[in-house]
Amino acid sequence: MNHHSDGLRNLEVVDQYRSLADGYLFVVIKACEILVADPSQVTYSRCSACYFNARLSVELFLKALIHKQQGSVDVGHHIEKLRDKVLILYPELTDIWDIPFCTEFVGFYDLQKAQDRFLKDYPIDQVLRYPTNKSGSVWSGVMIIEPGTFLQFLTKIQSDFLKVSSSVFG
Fold it and tell me: Which residues span the domain enclosing 15?
């Protein structure tokens, strides 16, 4: 059975974001379940794809929240900036949702400058998708993802989506 993109286009934009967030999260949960069931299938590339899609799911969910309040989304792919915008629009979420995939910056004199520099030099959405940066250098740092632990994290994201949806979307 085929599913046409009109099914998505027929939804309100805020629901398109939510539907895509759900779709990416569903697929990454299933992929992690497969990797947990058969450890011989675990590779960094597969784990990176899981991480990327889970992160994308959160990005789209945050954009749904922003769109619901503003009628549009003017923030890019940085989870930290999306989080900041969402928490301005929905301060009550601070108490019920610890938004995942955020990098914390501690001990900098100019916190905003440090965050902007890091996001420019190490854009995690790019790090997860490409083996090198724009200048062709291998990304610095090491990322490790363990599918079983990550699966537990994903189910927490899923339950948080439900909790936040109930609070915001009714």
Answer: 6-168
